[in-house]
Amino acid sequence: MKKYILIFITYLIFSCSNENQISKIPSNGFINGVDAKVMMGSESAVDTFNKIDKAWADLDYDVLRTFIAEDAEMKFADGNFAKGPDQFIERIKEWVKEVEEDDGNEYTWTTDYAFALALTEGEGDWVNAQFTSTHTNPESELSAEVFYEFYHIVDGKVQEWNQFKRDVPR
């Protein structure tokens, strides 16, 4: 009888261990038409994003330019499109003017989050980030705008960037 109790206790200990509950598969999700799965990306991609975010916030166009690939495709929430660092920076300069001079707001934001995802096959990481830009003009119909951005970063350079926006009314 003691043998059976010992076997039962041993079974109970091993069946409840955390190792059995941890998935051996480091990925999940899917992308239609792609055989690869989605997994967490690299910290280095998030580090690159943080450098981009700082340069952009400081309007340091020389530093920002170094993070954009020459043939990068950049799609803004308002429908504008830029190819490469020069067009991207020119569009940002126009945007700053629109926000500050035309709309009477400060061109600032809070970075709410950023994380990187990658595919099990393929190169680079996709950094997903959210920003909140609070409107400072008391006459604005909006209290804020929330931006969602996706940066495809390969070897420290943005290859593709997509931006989406949600308005927050007063």
Q: Explain this structure to me?
A:
The structure is a single chain. With 170 residues, the protein is an alpha+beta fold. The protein has a single domain, classed as Nuclear Transport Factor 2, Chain: A (Roll). It has helices spanning 2-15, 18-21, 43-57, 61-65, 84-102; strands at 27-28, 38-40, 68-75, 81-83, 110-119, 125-134, 142-154, 157-169.
Total individual domains: 1
The class by helix and strand makeup works out as alpha+beta
Spatial order of the strands forming the largest sheet: 1-2-5-6-7-8-3-4
Proportion in β-strands: 35-45%
Mind sketching the topology for me?
Blueprint: H1 2-15, H2 18-21, E1 27-28, E2 38-40, H3 43-57, H4 61-65, E3 68-75, E4 81-83, H5 84-102, E5 110-119, E6 125-134, E7 142-154, E8 157-169
Parallel strand pairs: 3-8
Antiparallel strand pairs: 1-2, 2-5, 3-4, 5-6, 6-7, 7-8
Quick recap of the structure?
34% of the residues lie in helices and 36% in strands. The protein is of the alpha+beta class.
What keywords describe this structure?
170 residues, alpha+beta, Nuclear Transport Factor 2, Chain: A, 8-stranded mixed beta sheet, 5 helices, globular
